[in-house]
Amino acid sequence: MLDDTSQKIVDAAMALIRDKGYVATTTKEIARLAGVNECTLFRKFENKKDIVLQGVNQAKWRANVTPDIFGSVTWDLQTDLEMFMRSYMDRMTPDFVNLSIGLRAPQLYEDTKDFIMKVPQAFLSEFKQYLEAMYEKGKIVQGDFEALAMAFFSATFGYVFLKASFNDELTKVDKESYIANNVELFIKRLVC
Amino acid sequence: MLDDTSQKIVDAAMALIRDKGYVATTTKEIARLAGVNECTLFRKFENKKDIVLQGVNQAKWRANVTPDIFGSVTWDLQTDLEMFMRSYMDRMTPDFVNLSIGLRAPQLYEDTKDFIMKVPQAFLSEFKQYLEAMYEKGKIVQGDFEALAMAFFSATFGYVFLKASFNDELTKVDKESYIANNVELFIKRLVC
DNA sequence: TTTGTATGCGTGTACTTGCTTGCATACAAT
DNA sequence: ATTGTATGCAAGCAAGTACACGCATACAAA
């Protein structure tokens, strides 16, 4: 656990990285936003990169997209598919999308890539397991569940990313009708 | 048209931005990579930002995703859907994905956002028109074509982006089987 | 032969970068 | 009363930043 001052520094750093990216975020500005003197950063942390590494390891700075989404399934296809997509969309807010783009600096990416990849990886494998279980139960037909999981996740992620990037300027299709249309798509494929 | 020297400068700048982002790209390094003296940049261009603005306006530094993809339709649903998705995937290479992320700097984004948005916008509206035309021809059933276009594009974009970001570490699902599964998804929805 | 144009080279400027140091002060634990 | 800990403040450092200037050289057009 970090003390208050350190936490304020981490929070300031992450917020700035989300807004302008890692390289453009200066230690001076982190200090100003945290309300501490610049030298305090270097008393609490080894260097600028260290601050960020602490940040990405905090739940607070992670979209709360955890496998527990897949723990509360009802085994009703429509209900579950809607819930999966809605859960991801509600938790992966534009702020988190922008943060993970802000973390894409060559100086950091080696250290943050695996972390950033965890969420999609978990979603994909849990979703694939769900499809396999549904098949075992005889509720859906056979298919390439790996590819279908990728299709479902890409559709979810793509929408979230595009909305975060272009807001409503790209499309006026709202979340709920997007979900409804997508779920219908997969149901038609999985039960016909 | 730019002279050879200016073009080399633009090319160097865009390549560096693709690899490390706008802020991390220095004029010194642009000059080095272009094989010219640093002061030549400022004789040819007003400033660093000006170099990039020239770049984004060149076809060379745009993914060649143009509406002409939608000009060569066969009006066979499967053939066309596969062609749309494959065309986007083939042209929107990881290099272009990374470039458009590298261009996401607050100092530039106001000037480049509209440009970056053009490709998705064109794809979406052309695809929606295609669906409407297919409906007129009685080849597909009714639906929310705006939402379905967004679903199709998000699925396409999501895959391209995720592959560019994580390569094969996230999924081993290859392009062709991804396309096949997605197209099947939409066909089931559009002809049932 | 003269002139203009394009470039390299070296140096420089004003400023910012991440990071450090020395010293003072407040406060809490002992 | 003493000691330790956390912080602020002012100054500074070496390196890097975008960008500028003066001068030399090559080459081509006039």
Short key terms for the protein model shown above:
9 helices; homodimer; Arc Repressor Mutant, subunit A; 192 residues; Tetracycline Repressor, domain 2; DNA-binding; mainly alpha
Written account of the structure:
The structure is a homodimer of 192-residue chains. The first copy, chain A, folds into two domains: 4-59, Homeodomain-like (Arc Repressor Mutant, subunit A, Orthogonal Bundle); 62-190, Tetracycline Repressor, domain 2. Chain A is 70% helix and 0% strand. Chain A contains nine helices and no strands. Chain A has helices at residues 4-20, 27-34, 38-44, 48-56, 77-91, 94-102, 106-136, 145-166, 175-191. In chain A, helix 5 packs antiparallel against helix 9 (175-191). The longest helix of chain A has 31 residues, at 106-136. The relative contact order of chain A is 0.12. The model of chain A has no long low-confidence stretch (mean pLDDT 95). At the A-B interface, helix 7, helix 8 and helix 9 of A face helix 7, helix 8 and helix 9 of B. Chain A binds a DNA duplex (30 and 30 nucleotides) through helix 3.
